[in-house]
Amino acid sequence: MISARNVTLAFGKRVLFDEVNISFTKGNCYGIIGANGAGKSTFLKILSGEIEPNKGMVEITPGERMAVLKQNQFEFDEQTVLNTVLMGHKRMWEVMHVKDALYAKEDFTEADGLRAGELEAEFGEMGGYESESNAASLLSDLGVKEEMHQDLMKDIPSNFKLRVLLAQSLFGNPDILLLDEPTNGLDIETIGWLENFLADYQNIVLVVSHDRHFLDTVCTHVSDVDRSKIKTFTGNYSFWYESSQLMARQMSDKNKKNEDKRAALLDFIARFSANASKSKQATSRKKALEKLTIEEIEPSNRKYPGIIFQPLREVGNQILNVEKLKKEVDGRVLFKDVSFSVSKNDKIAFLSRDPLAITYFFDIINNNGKADGGSFEWGTTITSAYLPMEHNAFFNEPYSLMDWLRQYVPSHVTDADEPFIRGFLGKMLFSGDDVSKKTNVLSGGEKVRCMVSKMMLQNPNVVVLDQPTNHLDLESIQSFNEGCQNFPGVVLITSHDHTFMQTVANRVIELTPKGIIDRLMTFDEYMEDKRVQELRAEMYA
Question: 2.60.40.10, 3.40.190.150, 3.40.50.300, 1.10.260.40: which CATH number matches 320-540?
Fold first, then answer.
C-alpha cells in the first residue's frame, strides 16, 4: 500500500494540495484525473519522492518496490537499450554489478565466495537469471525490435526512447507503478498491448492519461484532483463522468422524489456493472462496482466547454472528391492513389502508420500544402473549418483574445459586437478578464480552445480535425467528442484518442504507400476485422 498523509504543497500563494489524505491498495489501478494545472503529475512526483511536500508525508508498505515512468529521454544516452530496461529494477542491477565485481577480483577470498553466494541467491530470488530474456520480451511487445536492443539509447529515434523508458518502468513486476502519460508516442496496436498488460496487473498502478479509452480499460478507480483535494471514486473514467453528470441532473431536478432518484441511480450502477462484466479485463472493476453505494456518487465540480458547431447551410450532394492524390517527402511515399468521395452524413476516421501522412493530406485538401500528383475538389455548398495539428503560426502577434477572434468573423455576420465575440470565447471557458489576455503567451491548451472558438464562429458544415485532443484536458476532450457526435455536418478526423475515433466515425479511410483502405464501419470494427488486418499487412509490406 502507498498513502499520502496530510500532504500540503504550495508554490508561493498558490496552494496545489491542502491536507490531502489518500491511500492506494494492491490489485487496483487508479486513474489520476483533473483539469490542466490541477497538479496530477506533481502528485505522482510527491509519491515518488521527487518533490518534497511542504507538510505531510508519503508512506509505503516496507519492502515494496516502486517504479516510475521516466520523462527524461536523455538520462540513459550512454546505456544500451537492454541495459536501460534492466536498470528499472535498481536492486537487481546493483546486485548484478556487485557480484560481477567480486568474481573479477584477482585475490578472490573465501569471504568473497560466501558473499558472492549470498548475492547469487538474492539475484535468483529477484528473477535475475531470466532478467535479460524478460527485458527483451518486454521490449519486443512494445515494438522495439531485437536489432535495437544492443544499440545505445542516444542512437535510437525519440519515439522508441519513450517505449524503452516505458519497458523500464514495467520491468520486474514492481509493487507500485506510477505512469504519467504512458501512451504518448505509442501506436494503436501497442496501446492495446499496454491496456491488456495493465488490466491484468495484480499490484498497485497509478496512471495519469488523457486517453479515455485507456483509462476505461485499465482503471478500477478514479482519483479526482480538484480544489486542492483528491477524492477517489469507484469505477473507470466513463463511470465517473456519467454518474457525476447523472447526479448533477438529479440534484437540479427539485421536483423529483428521493425514491425515484435513488431508483435511477441504482439502475445506472447495475447497468454499468453488467457492461463491465462483458470485458475480459473487467473482473476487478465489476467487483468494485458491486460494492459501490449511492452515497459515494457525487456531482462533478468541473466546468465543461460548450463546443457546438452550427452549420449555416446543409451540405449539398457534392462535398469532396479526391482523385489519385499523391505525396512524397524526402523520397518516402506517404500516400498515393488516394481516390474517394465524401457523402452526406459521413464522419470519417483517417488512419496511417506514418503519422506525417494524414497531416500532409489534411494540409493539402485545406490548401495549406501541395500534392505531388492528383487533384481534389470541394462542393460549392461547403464551408469547412480546419483544426491543424500545428497552429502556432496563428498566434505570433500579441493580440488580445477579443481582437484575435474578431479577425475571423465571417462576412455573413453583420453585428459582431463585443457580446457576440465574448459569447464564442465564453463557450471555451474564456471569461471576464481572460478575453484581454495576449495570444502570444497562451498555453498549448488555450491555443486549441481559441482555434475551436474560431471554428465555431465560421458556422461550418464540414470540420477537419488533425489530432484535436492534443493539449486539452479531459473535460474539453469530452465536450469536443460530444460536439462532433451531435454535429449534423461532415467530420474528417484523425486522433490518438480511441474513444473519439470510435464514437464519432462511421467510416474509416487508411492512407498507405500503396493506396487506401476504405470501409464503411466503426473504428473498432475496422481494427478487429481479420480481412482488413490482412489487407493492412499487404499495403505496408
Answer: 3.40.50.300
- Which helix (H) or strand (E) segment holds residue 177: the answer is strand 176-180
Lookup: cell for 376 = 481534389
In tens, the pLDDT along 387-416 reads: 999 998 999 889 999 999 999 998 888 787
- What phi and psi values does residue 30 have, to the nearest 5 degrees? -110, 120
The CA distance from 200 to 288, in Å, is 15
Distance of CA 416 to the CA centre of its chain: 37
| Whole-number Cα distances in Å, 322 to 314, 345, 420, 526 | 21, 17, 37, 22
So what's the pLDDT on residue 185?
79
- Residue percentage of the chain with pLDDT more than 70: 91
Show the CA angle centred on residue 362, arms to residues 361 and 364, nearest 5°.
65
Residue 196 near residue 281 (C-beta atoms within 8 A)? yes
Of the candidates 166, 211, 159, the one whose C-alpha atom is nearest the C-alpha of residue 353 is: 159
Burial class (CB in 10 A: 0-12, 13-18, 19+), 120: middle
What stretch of H or E contains 516? strand 515-519
Residue 400, strand partner residues: 438
What residues does each domain of the chain span? 247-296, 320-540
Backbone phi, then psi, for 275, in 5-degree steps?
-65, -40
Residue in this structure with the C-alpha cell 505509442, named with its chain if needed: 186
Cell numbers at residue 81, please? Answer: 537499450
- Encode pLDDT of 254-294 as tens digits: 656 666 666 766 676 666 655 554 444 445 555 655 666 65
**Signed CA dihedral, 219, 225, 226, 231: sign only:** positive
CA separation (Å) from 307 to 248, 301, 304, 346, 496? Answer: 20, 19, 9, 19, 20
Q: Which residue bears the cell 458547431?
A: 309
Q: Which residue in 85, 171, 166 sits closest to 126, CA to CA?
A: 171
CA dihedral 291, 295, 297, 302 (to 10 degrees): -150
pLDDT tens digits for range 401-459? 999 999 999 888 878 788 999 999 999 999 888 899 999 888 888 999 999 999 999 99
Residue 488 has pLDDT above 90, yes or no: yes
57 forms beta bridges with 5
Alpha carbons 463 and 492: distance in angstroms, whole number: 6
HSE-CB of 463 using CA atoms within 13 angstroms? 35
Cell numbers describing residue 252: 437540479
pLDDT single digits (tens) 91-140: 999 999 898 888 888 888 888 889 989 999 998 988 889 999 999 999 99
What residues form DSSP beta bridges with 32?
223
- Segment 296-324, tens digit of pLDDT: 667 667 788 999 999 999 999 999 999 99
By CB neighbour count within 10 A (0-12 exposed, 13-18 middle, 19+ buried), where does 378 fall? Answer: middle
